[in-house]
Amino acid sequence: MPATSLQEPSSVRLGLKENWQQFSLLLLINAFVGGMVGIERTVVPLIGANEFHVKSTVLITSFVISFGVVKALANLVSGQLADRLGRKRVLVAGWLIGLPVPFMIIFAPSWEWVIAANVLLGLSQGFAWSMTVVMKVDLVGPKGRGFAVGLNEFAGYVAVGLTAFLTGYLASRYGLRPMPIYLGVIYGIAGTILSILAVRDTRQHVQLEASRAANPASALSFREVFVLASFKDRNLLAASQAGLVNNLNDGMSWGIFPLFFTTLGLGIERIGVLKAVYPIVWGVGQVVTGPLSDRWGRKGLIVGGMCVQAVGLLITALGGHFGWWLVGSVLLGAGTAMVYPSLIAAVSDASHPTWRARSLSVYRFWRDLGYAIGALSAGLIADRFGFSAAIVAIGVLTFMSGTFYLVAAVEAKNPA
């Protein structure tokens, strides 16, 4: 029995134009996926500090650590599950797992409940977001891959930013709970219904692309793909470490930026603005940087983007007022927009269609492990030396990661 109802082989075609309806549906679904993360960007660290009176920065950022570790592991198995069970089943499973998350945050009697909710959120995101990426890459084929990934991440991270702003606005008027978190209930129900009723699987698109591939498929085990994507292939190694550091600085900003800005006297609504600008610039920018990576190549955008991120972090740490922090947020978003779709496309370029889903899952494992490493390391540094020192340290590491990619990676001759 097939995992899902598939199109007849004669009707399967590759390309964005040819698959625009399913592609657009997956964009909307990924916006709901991003919104589920956005409900936490502004208010959850403040819930820990203000409602549960958690004093340690490491303990407050533990919700990001639990999210990052679980999401990384879910990413690692999502590609294997997608190849065995079908993309749609994994997508639906991700939504069903994520449905309890907003309710657990709303009714949490202790901080441990919030941490537990983020275990489920990490598992949900690892399945649902991974599948929206993989299915769009499946649909468009080798041409325009960067554009497809850019649109996917645009939808997800604009939703993260808008939701971060809305939760900050609602929290400033109605309190940290429950009103801001109701947005997550709406996202969860809508995303689940659409995924079950409207999404079609894309495995036959993979088979079609594989049949046209110039190089024959290699029969690689999951272990072999993991070793190749993590250590053996220089392009995949460079991409994995850059992805890890990219999300390392995002995990740091998620966990400690609200606390940092609070100590400097900002109110929740203005913190919400700063927390919204970063992912909105990140999301919108990818509509431009994704296609540019198809035309110009991936390497320059990745190296340049890591450097722009580093500058944004340094400005945030050393700037003394809202205007500088706004500039830092814009630069952090712009740099991430340059890096994010380019890295996913670079991994896709270096992977055969028959094991691309597994290769992307390994890359996303290392990338999203950065959430946990960033939150933990920033929390430890902040507890010992202060928030500014933690942000500067992560900024320096981000610059070093871009330098490593410059030296290690070899540009694909024809990315598109």
UniProtKB/TrEMBL annotation:
Annotated Gene3D superfamilies: MFS general substrate transporter like domains (1.20.1250.20)
Ranges for domain Major facilitator superfamily (MFS) profile come to: 23-413
GO terms of molecular function: transmembrane transporter activity
SUPFAM superfamilies for this protein: MFS general substrate transporter
Q: Which UniProt keywords apply?
A: Cell membrane, Membrane, Transmembrane, Transmembrane helix, Transport
| TM regions (residue ranges) | 20-39, 59-78, 90-108, 114-135, 147-169, 181-199, 300-318, 324-344, 365-382, 388-410
Question: Where does this polypeptide localize?
Answer: Cell membrane
Q: How does it sit in the membrane?
A: Multi-pass membrane protein
Q: Which coarse location class applies to the principal site listed for this UniProt protein?
A: membrane
Q: Tell me which Pfam families the record gives.
A: MFS_1 (PF07690)
Recorded GO cellular component terms are: plasma membrane
**Name of the featured protein:** MFS transporter
- Give the species: Rhizobium fredii (Sinorhizobium fredii)
